[in-house]
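fwd from M.: "can u put these together and see what the complex looks like"

so here's what she sent:
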Amino acid sequence: MATMPTFFRRTQKPAGARPRLERDPYCLRALPQEDVFFYCKKIDNSRLVREPDPKSGGACWSAIGAAAIVLALLTGVLAPSVAGTLAGYKLESLKAEERRLLDERRTLELREAELLSPERLEKLAERQNLVTPKSGQVVRLDGNKPSGAVAMVK
Amino acid sequence: MVERRLIWLAGVVLLWGAAIFSKLITLQVLHHRQYADMARARQELTIDIPAPRGSIFDRAGAPLAMSVPTESVHINPLKVPDLRVASEILSLVLRMDRVELYGRMKNAYDNHRGYLVVKKKIPFEEAQSLRNMRLDWIDIDDESQRHYPNGSLAAHILGGVDFEERGNGGIEKALDAELRGIPGRERLLTDVKRRGIDALLSTEPRPGASLTLTIDERLQFVAERELAAQVAAKNARSGSVVVMDPQNGDILALASFPTYDPNLPPHEGEDPEARANHAISVPFEPGSVFKVITLSAALETTRLTPASMIDCGRGAITLFGRTIHEAHGGYGVIPMADVLKHSSNVGAIRIGMQVGQEHMYEYVRRFGFGQKTGVSLPGESRGRLRPLKIWGKTSLASIAMGQEVSVTTMQLAQAACVVANGGLLVRPRLVLKRGNEKVPAAAPVRVVNPETAITMRQMMEGVVLPGGTGWPEARLEGYSVGGKTGSAQIFDFATKHYTHSYNGSFMGFAPMNNPAIVVVVTLNGTHGTGGFGGRAAAPVFHAVAQEALRVLDVPKDLPDAPPTTVAANPPAAADDDVAIADFGDGPNVLEDGEEEEQGVGGGGSGVWSGSARQSASALRADLLVPDFRGKSMRAVLAEAAARGLTVLPDGSGVARVQYPPAGSTYHQGERIRVRFAR
């Protein structure tokens, strides 16, 4: 059996192992089974300083402004159409409501006429013990003579 | 190398662009119409906007007929997923028999029918319930249904409509073109849910014109009620009443019995007579009411006056070898006014003979007989009046007392208006307004002189005074009345003989000065003495005229208490103005076809009934007019009542002037005019 020290030493570098070299950052990844190493070009832009471009800012704002104008124009073009469509919905719904109310009114007028029919009123009068007034029983309190009266018997 | 790749890439892009462009050309140019039509079919909806049928109102604006919207349900049986479930749903909502409905649906499905009407004219709530279910195999259509809210009131005037709301009788038929509206159409742009967005094209519906009739609903009801009651009481077959305004011809009421309910369609077993308008379509021999025409012609064309003495031959007259008798008793020589009052047939014949054939024919035509009145109702009969050239030897005698001529109740009313309004023939008018426009009345035509009309009125007043054939049934409380009774035997076409059934008529107007109404009543098929005009028709006149004068607020011209009879003389016996005519061989005028094709007929002898038997002493004046001058109205009326006299008071205060003067002979039925002043 392996001794404890040997077990713990398993994680240590084995003796005689070659020390890993410090990797060159510009060295590209080695090809397998190859001893050929490629290097990429060293470009050091750390000394370069980007200067602000006044025109690019203006162009950006111009683009934003143009987009906003286009959006506004589109809205202006489409909005009446949308409003018209919504108004059309409302209008048709109101027309249908108008027709329904007119129909309902006719139905109610019919019902009123049925309730006021002379036959029905006569039956109601009989139930209430009411009779048709005889001529002379009706007295006009306003004192007006009926039109065409030439002479009246008092 | 690179350039070649770029060129290849450009070529591919170009080809792709060309392909897209050509597709665009195909869609938007070559197939433009096809796709536009498809879009339109999906996006647009064409709907018919129904136009309501015009309403009909009475003169006061009460609706007599109106259309209300309703809906009908129909389904596509081929789209129904489950017929049993569908029939259960529909029967539950529409309150129908499920088994029967399922049978119909199954039958339609088996026959590959894509349309089945489930129920028509459903209430709004049921339609809404079905809509809320949003089932694509159910369709609901808008329709219209005609209603007559007063039931059978004015049924013969209004008529009715069929299932397509086309008039099939009465005013509905006569003025159908005006009542029908013109439906509109709307093309609607819809969204995906078929909700309307915009109306692309619309034609507004034109509703039918509303009509205002001259009919008064209240008078119409009273006329129909009284007519129905009297027809039942007298066991008559049918009857009719016409109430007119004599000044302008307005028809205030037109009743016909039997009647029907226009809300109900014709059904099997229904009495076909119920749908006939007896007032305008069924002519009859008028009998004694026609004597009004005879006497009017006599006043116009001869020297006869109401006081002219006419020899009634003690109840018999011989003409061309044939002897004609009065039915009951007979009269001697009596004034012409009494010929009308007692309805003497022999007297009428004598008067007619003095008028002559030509004048008689002329005046019968002038009074509107033998031609249509022009009332706005279909099916009007012009009656029958034989052309003069085919009159027989006794035609003049027959026509003088109302035989050998057939008339309608409407024609009698029109003729009565001539006497009532001072001699003008006014055309009966039924339509007062079309929409908001008044319909002008036709210009009247002068028939007789005003003096003749006034004289006739006075003579006709005698008919409803004690001793007259219209007393006491036709008298009115508070109003003076003039009229004429008629009782004509009915001709049996099967046996070619006159029967003992009568057409009892009464033609009258009130009040005497400036008559406000004319009422003509006819009962057909009455029996016995109770079926004569004075007993059968006059009570209806009394009820209808009394109500009409009250409704129209016509000022009274008499005291309310009815005048008492003259105690010394018994009142007239039963109304005996029966015109019995059995001419035997000749054809009856009612059998005539076209007047021009008939030969001589209708002549021969006959037996007429006369008026009531009265003793000669009853006709003699045996009272002197008392002196009322200086007395108060109360005292005058009390004294007159005690003596059985009729007094017409005028003014207030103390009696100053009277006519006839005090001490003069009082004639039975005469009225004493007394003027009072302070």
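replying to her w this: Residues 562-575, 581-586, 594-622 of chain B have pLDDT under 50 and may be disordered.
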